[in-house]
Structure formats: C-alpha cells, structure tokens
Write a structure and sequence with these properties.
The complex is a heterodimer of chains A (409) and B (187). Chain A contains ten helices and 22 strands. Chain A is α+β, with helices and mostly antiparallel strands. In chain A, the strands form three sheets. In chain A, strands 11-15-14-13-12-9-10-16 form an eight-stranded antiparallel β-sheet. In chain A, 33% of the residues are buried. Chain B has 187 residues and is mainly α. Chain B has two domains: 89 residues, Orthogonal Bundle (Rna Polymerase Sigma Factor, Chain: A), CATH 1.10.1740; 91 residues, Arc Repressor Mutant, subunit A (Orthogonal Bundle). In chain B, strands 1-2 form a two-stranded antiparallel sheet. Classes of the chains: A alpha+beta (409), B mainly alpha (187).
Chain lengths: 409, 187
C-alpha cells in the first residue's frame, strides 16, 4: 500500500458523504458563535431582515427618542437589496481603503473597528513619516492612490494593557483603526487562559454586562447583569486553565451562559464569551474558537452567581436599524420617513440621517439616491430626541413589501 | 433538465444525453479534473473520456446521483492521467500536495502488500469518514476526494486556511492510527 492506493481508496466513500461535502457554508466564520451569541439578531446573516426594531438604549448619553412600541405592521417588511457596489476610491471609507499590512515582518489585518477614546491608546511605536512597513496589495493601488496613501502616512500606536504583538492601533485618514496580528501558526495560540488574559489585558479591557442562556444550540432568555466584573475576576483566577481546542468545540450540546463581549480597546463588537456547566470557557475574541477547561465547579459557581445578579431583558439586535422612504435630501442630512411600514401612517417617524459619514454621503453623491427611494440604515449609536440617527455602520437600498408584494411609492 | 431525464436519455441511447450532461455538469466535472490534472487540456480530455464512460455504463447502471457518478469517474480518469503525466515528469500541483499529505498516514512503516488489502482499504476509508465529526469529514472529503486546494476549502466553509490545515492534520493523525491498528502497515 502506498499513498496512491490511499488516494484511490477514497473512491469508496459513500454518496451521502460526498453529497454532504458539496454544501457550502453561507455563513461567515464563527457563525456558530454569532447565532448563539447574546443580543445578536439575524440582521447580519439574513439577506432580508424583518421590520426594523427600535430599542430604547439604556445607556443613551443625552435624552434618547422615545419611540412607541408596536408601530409597525407585521405584514410589511423592509429588506436590504442585495446590490453590491464597488465604490470608487474617493468614496471608500478609510477602513475599506486599507485593510491589511505588514509591519516588522508580521502581517496585520483590520478588525474594522475604530478607537475613538484616545485615552485607550498607548505610546507611538511607529512614526507616521517613516515608511519601513509595506502595504498589503500595494501593486493593486493606482499611482494616484499610492500617492495619497504615502502622503497620509500611518502612525502606529500601542493599545494600553494590550500586547502590541497581538493588537495595534493604526491611524488611517484621521481614525485609529484596530489591527490584529494575523496568526498563521498553531504555536501562536495561547496555551492557557492566563496567557489570553495577559495578551489582551482582559481584566481591564473587557466588559460583560449582557448574556443569554443557552441550551445546546437554542437561545433561552436574555439578561443584563452587574456581575460582569465578578466573572472577569473569577476567570482571571483560572490562569492555568488549558486551551483544549481552537475550533469552537466542547460547547455544542450543553447548558451555559453566553456573554456579549464588546470592547473598544480590543476592536471587538458583540463577540461571544461562553461559560458552560460542563466546565468550559469558549470565546472568539481572537477570531478562533478557543475553548479553555476551567472545571465544572468553577463554571457552575460563576453561572449561579451571575444568575443571582441579573435582570431579564429583551434581545438586542446585532445592529439596530431603521428603514423608510427618503423625503428630503438637505445640506448635511437626509430625512427618512418610516410611515410606510406602520399600521397607522400617523405613527410614522421622520428620521434625520447625517451625511457627514462617507457611508451615507456616497449613496447621494455617487449612487444618486433621490427622494422617494427606500433605504435601510444600520446603526450602533442612539436615536436622539430630534430623531437623528447616530453611529451609522451601513446603508443600503431597501425593498419594502407587504405580504411579499412590493409597495409602490 | 432533471438528472432522471438525462439518465433516461442515456437509457434510450439518445445522442443528446452527452450534450445535456455537459450543459448541466460540464463546469463541475472540469473543476474536479483540473484540480487533479493541473492542466486544462488534460482536464478537458478526461471529462470527455468520462462522458464516454458514462455512455458505456448506463445502461446497465442506473445511478441515483448522476452528479456523483460523474464525479467518481472524472476523479478516477484524472488521477490516471496525472500518473501518466508524472511519468513524463509533467504535472504536480495540488495532487502532488494531496499525495504527500496522505503519505504521512503511512510513512515510517513497512507496507503490507497484497491485493486483498486494497479492497479492505476501501472499506476502512468508507467507515473511517463516518467516524469523523461532520465539519471535519466535509473538509477531509473536499481535500482527499475532490482534491480541492486548501484556499477553496477555507472559502467554501468560511474558515481560515490555517484552520483547514489544522483540521486536516488532525484527521490524518486519526487515519494513521487506524491504519496501524488495522495492520495496513507495521509502524
């Protein structure tokens, strides 16, 4: 028997197994996490989303808008159209323009999240005028684009409490974007939970305040908790807990609690931090599905403490969204009226969308959206009292339907 | 056209059976052949040979899945072509990598040679893949049956290439242990 015999013997694999391998995953990496992650909705995975949810954020900086519940007609649906647009260079966001690079011989990839609180940043480790690093895919840029990038220069800074071998902040066209070291070697995985804690300064950079219960693959109820710091500290005591898997194993069919992990310093938004009653901690904060064995006793202590310090809440979608018809394109803003989605038109709200963000502006200037067009906006921020939508993360042309039939405006 | 209708054309010995097959599965077959032969002209010839083989085997055969029936034939013919090319010092590419990976499962041991082993080996592979977890099995099959490049497996399943490599490594280790245990080589 040689390698060729072994290769030929694969011919005997049964049809149902071959058939199974023909399927493609429609999902992004770590969808499994995304699905069970607390506070996520199908917004990011489904092409069509249901009537947008409007939630009153408990953490609004100034008075948020109070929006009546159940305004929407459940037969009406706004879905993002699947049009993919290749925006020209001048209409790309800084993050779209620049997503990977090499620095000191290591590859870094963008986490597509920005640090806006500069107090989180540490020392400068690379002066913006120096150019000893190479931009990934440099040859694919046009001469004009190269010039613009060279003129801009990139200042690289450490992030406080975080190992700069893991994450760095790069100033791109005025914004500090978090980049992570692209791990290619298995040896670069943390061997213990303590290592992960040290590398990412988790005791100081992580905040856990929302979770959902999970039973196997199904999500249970959603909770807010003030026991987040307790959890972080309790896990810090499990520094020796070994990494036993990097592919998301060991939490499938068990009961557990799934925290939503968001951290500006780490450049992560709604990642997962799962503690199972069988004694495992599973997290995808470094993109891989790390599983650490913390022991069933410890895990159950944490779970019962958290449960005793929580309040039931509603699911919070991955991003909030609004949709409606453009009624005005003004100087620095557009207005979107969502009465078309309401049971009673009088309940409709006119939202103000600032056009200072390229994400919005390019639809007007380049795509030439006009009044009467339907759009959908996803946002991370709040809706202020005058119905201005803050923290817009995406915009798309929408299709509004009533029981499957397109609503003509 | 539905598979059963195309198969009906073969059964009736209709000339358009082949053109209908090519219309539906031409791209699919060529992608398998190109993975293995690493040469588009060789791949094209293998696919044409595969159509002839299907023409000669239906009837008497009446496959449940025409697609997979074709996949097996194309794979087999392409691997023969690959071996001929290697003898002429051409070829290489993905198949060479796949074979080297498989060699890990039997290296450092003395192979036990006999014809009966080949049949038993097929049986062993057939049951081995069923013991793998689903995702791991899919990756194993994509790599060692379809000879897919690691990059395309990563894209297919939304994983990193590194993750695919690690998973494949794990499967090979399991296979190696099984082969040793079942006496396919004396490690």
């Amino acid at each position: 028997m040689d390698k060729k015999d072994l290769y030929r013997s694969m011919q005997e694999i049964d049809d149902d197994i071959l058939q199974e391998s023909e399927k493609r995953s429609k999902n992004k990496p770590w969808l499994k996490f995304a699905v069970i992650a607390a506070c996520t909705a199908l917004v990011i995975t489904a092409a069509a989303i249901t009537v947008p949810l409007l939630t009153k954020s408990p953490a609004a900086p100034d008075e948020p808008a109070v929006i009546k519940d159940n305004r929407y007609d459940k037969n009406k649906t706004a879905s993002a159209s699947e049009t993919a647009i290749g925006w020209p260079w001048e209409y790309q966001t800084p993050m779209e323009r620049y997503s990977a690079f090499e620095f000191n011989g290591a590859a870094y990839v963008s986490r597509s999240n920005v640090i806006s609180d500069e107090s989180l940043l540490g020392e400068i480790i690379h002066d913006e005028n120096a150019s000893k690093y190479e931009i990934f895919g440099w040859d694919s840029y046009t001469e004009e684009e190269k010039q613009e990038l060279e003129m801009e220069g990139f200042e690289i800074r450490k992030i406080k409490n975080v190992d700069s071998d893991k994450l760095i902040a790069v100033r791109i066209f005025g914004e500090y974007v978090v980049f992570r070291r692209d791990i290619q070697e298995e040896q670069a995985f943390p061997a213990t939970l303590g290592e992960l804690y040290n590398e990412y300064g988790l005791s100081k950079t992580l905040k856990l305040d929302r979770y959902c219960e999970k039973n196997g693959y199904s999500n249970g109820d959603y909770f807010t908790t003030d026991a987040g710091q307790y959890v972080i500290d309790a896990l810090a005591d499990c520094g020796d807990a070994p990494l036993i898997s990097a592919d998301g194993a060991y939490f499938d069919d068990t009961y557990g609690i799934t925290f939503t992990a968001t951290s500006e310093a780490l450049g992560i938004y709604k990642k997962s931090f799962i503690i199972t009653e069988e004694g495992y901690l599973c997290t995808n904060i470094e993109e891989y599905g790390y599983t650490f064995e913390i022991g069933a006793d410890k895990a159950n202590d944490i779970i019962s403490y958290v449960k005793a310090h929580s309040e039931k809440t509603e699911l919070e979608p991955f991003y909030n969204s609004v949709a409606g018809i453009i009624t005005e394109i003004g100087d620095g803003y557009i207005l979107i009226d969502d009465s078309v989605l309401c049971k009673d038109e009088k309940d409709g709200i006119v939202f103000k969308i600032p056009t200072d963000s390229m994400i919005v502006r390019r639809w007007i200037e380049y795509y030439h959206l006009k009044t009467g067009d339907a759009v959908m906006i996803e946002y991370k921020g709040d809706i202020s009292k005058d119905y201005t939508v803050n923290g817009i993360v995406s915009m798309s042309v929408a299709i509004i339907t009533e029981e499957g039939v397109i609503v003509e405006e | 056209m539905e598979d059963k209708d195309i198969i009906a054309l073969f059964l009736q010995r209709r000339g358009d059976a082949v053109s209908e097959t090519d219309k539906k599965y031409g791209v699919y077959c060529r992608s398998i052949a190109e993975n293995i032969c690493h040469d588009s002209r060789d791949a094209e010839e293998c696919v044409n040979d595969a159509y002839l083989a299907v023409w000669n085997s239906i009837p008497p055969q009446n496959p449940v899945s025409l697609k997979l029936f074709l996949a097996r034939i194309v794979r087999n013919l392409s691997f023969n072509r690959y071996n001929e090319a290697r003898a002429e010092k051409r070829g290489g590419g993905e198949t060479a990598l796949v074979l080297d990976e498989l060699a890990e499962c039997i290296e450092s041991g003395e192979s036990v040679e006999s014809e009966i082993d080949r049949r038993q080996l097929g049986e062993l592979i057939r049951s081995f893949v069923r013991t793998l977890p689903r995702k791991e099995r899919q990756i194993f099959v994509r790599r060692y049956f379809f000879t897919d490049p690691v990059k395309s497996i990563a894209q297919r399943y939304g994983m990193t290439e590194n993750n695919v490599l690690v998973t494949l490594h794990r499967s090979r280790k399991k296979l190696k242990e099984l082969l040793k245990k079942e006496g396919f080589y004396n490690g």
